[in-house]
């Protein structure tokens, strides 16, 4: 069986959904599970809605109506007004009506997941209805009954054993009857609350289903020709990889390459399932195949740019050396605040650490660190990672920016720049 994942860009309008069905038609006769993201920029819009709700802002209904109008406009381009998809979508949005009527309680991440998840619940309704409309038999599946997570909202930790058991129990029989369409990015807790798996988590969803069902391959359909050596938004003269090893792909995503969610590759590697990254506009193109290939020769470096970084420097309040006890306390705080460290360096009197800036988490951490350390920080920074670098190329990359922290290993160069 095959697993397909369609990201937000591929289903951003009616033309995208029509294109999706054309791609799927090419695979008629194969068992197919389709994982779909929220349409276009819906997740960002729902994030805005969540913030407006929690802060009880006046523009909440404005934001909400825009989200609804966008989806109903797409529906009206795909279906006659009497089509049941209109009611399905309206009924899904009702969940938001109920939620925003009440006063927000104080767990932001919990509220976020209950609201933001509506994006995928709606997009899959539309995609599923359209597949059936063009004569492809397809069934809508609520992923929250299959991908079981703990209650770490916004970053649900998947309970693999339970998840695979449920998937293996029900999905093979469904796939015999037709296509299965389900939501990326979402999970469910044992108390039936919705969780999300982290931004761009739909790739990970596809990998979970593929690993549990021992799929032949996973294909993620994208608006790029495959995996490029650098983001074309930042660099010209990019090249596409026809092949990549699992290990290289893991390294790339770890350092922040946005093309694939970082948790996606490992389960596929363990089950030896190739991941194909293909352009949805040209389904016959080969794209990039990620599999267990031998190390390649990298003619061009792999460059990963990650923005919105904060660099924090800690020193002990009594000006003593930074000891293992200090570090152990610091790491515990990072773990407790769910902050992943992107780069760090220890010197005699200070510990410097770089990570993604996320306001609420940062403020919490900062307050806790301040109690024990002198804390200095700098935000709005960028971290540039270069794999397979040549020393002489690094200068051009940095350009006239100031380097605040730098680390070079044999294969990988990393620089935090301002
Ligand atoms: N819709 C979610 C996001 O934009 C998940 C995904 O697209 O993979 O982050
Ligand atoms: Mg997306």
From TrEMBL:
The record's Pfam families line, in alphabetical order, gives:
AA_kinase (PF00696)
Task: Please name the source species.
Answer: Mucilaginibacter agri
| NCBIfam families for this protein | asp_kinases (TIGR00657)
Quote a single Gene Ontology cellular component term. Answer: cytosol
Family that this chain belongs to:
Belongs to the aspartokinase family.
As recorded in UniProt, its EC number(s) are 2.7.2.4
* Record keywords: Amino-acid biosynthesis, ATP-binding, Kinase, Nucleotide-binding, Transferase
Q: Where is the Aspartate/glutamate/uridylate kinase domain?
A: 2-277
Q: List the protein's name.
A: Aspartokinase
Q: Name one GO biological process term.
A: lysine biosynthetic process via diaminopimelate
| Catalysed reactions, semicolon-separated | L-aspartate + ATP = 4-phospho-L-aspartate + ADP
Matching InterPro entries: AceGlu_kinase-like_sf, ACT-like_dom_sf, Asp/Glu/Uridylate_kinase, Asp_kinase, AsparK_Bifunc_asparK/hSer_DH
Biological or metabolic pathway of the protein = Amino-acid biosynthesis; L-methionine biosynthesis via de novo pathway; L-homoserine from L-aspartate: step 1/3; Amino-acid biosynthesis; L-threonine biosynthesis; L-threonine from L-aspartate: step 1/5; Amino-acid biosynthesis; L-lysine biosynthesis via DAP pathway; (S)-tetrahydrodipicolinate from L-aspartate: step 1/4
User: Which Gene Ontology MF annotations are present?
Assistant: aspartate kinase activity; ATP binding
């Amino acid at each position: 069986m095959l697993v397909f994942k369609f990201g937000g860009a591929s289903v951003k309008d009616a033309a995208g959904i029509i294109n999706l069905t054309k791609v799927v038609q090419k695979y008629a006769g194969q068992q197919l599970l389709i994982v779909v993201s929220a349409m276009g920029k819906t997740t960002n819009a729902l994030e805005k809605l969540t913030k407006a709700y929690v802060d009880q802002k006046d523009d909440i209904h404005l934001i909400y109506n825009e989200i609804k109008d966008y989806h109903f406009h797409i529906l009206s381009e795909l279906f006659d007004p009497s089509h049941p998809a209109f009611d399905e979508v309206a009924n899904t949005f009702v969940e938001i009506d109920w939620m925003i009527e009440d006063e927000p309680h104080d767990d932001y991440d919990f509220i976020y997941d209950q609201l933001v998840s509506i994006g995928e619940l709606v997009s899959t309704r539309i995609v599923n209805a359209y597949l059936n409309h063009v004569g492809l038999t397809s069934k809508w599946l609520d992923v929250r009954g299959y991908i079981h997570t703990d209650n770490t909202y916004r970053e649900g930790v998947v309970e693999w054993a339970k998840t695979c058991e449920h998937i293996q129990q029900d999905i093979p029989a469904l796939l015999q009857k037709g296509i299965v369409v389900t939501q990326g990015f979402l999970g469910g807790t044992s108390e039936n609350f919705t969780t999300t798996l982290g931004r761009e988590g739909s790739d990970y969803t596809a990998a979970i289903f593929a690993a549990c069902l021992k799929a032949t391959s996973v294909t993620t359909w994208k608006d790029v020709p495959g995996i490029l050596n650098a983001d074309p938004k930042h660099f010209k003269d990019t090249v596409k990889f026809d092949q990549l090893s699992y290990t290289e792909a893991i390294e790339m995503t770890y350092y922040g390459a946005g093309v694939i969610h970082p948790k996606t590759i490992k389960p596929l590697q363990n089950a030896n399932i190739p991941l194909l990254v293909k352009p949805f506009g040209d389904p016959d193109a080969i794209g990039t195949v990620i599999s267990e290939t031998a190390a390649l020769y990298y003619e061009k470096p792999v460059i990963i740019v990650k923005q919105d970084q904060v660099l924090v420097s800690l020193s002990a309040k009594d000006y003593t050396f930074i000891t293992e006890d200090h570090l152990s306390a610091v790491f515990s705080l990072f773990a407790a605040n769910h902050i992943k460290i992107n780069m760090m360096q220890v010197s005699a009197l200070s510990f410097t650490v770089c990570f993604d800036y996320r306001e609420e988490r940062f403020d919490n951490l900062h307050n806790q660190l301040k109690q024990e350390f002198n804390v200095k920080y700098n935000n709005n920074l960028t971290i540039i990672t270069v794999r397979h670098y040549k020393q002489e190329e690094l200068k051009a990359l940095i350009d006239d920016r100031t380097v605040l922290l730098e680390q070079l290993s044999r294969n990988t160069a990393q620089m935090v720049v301002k």
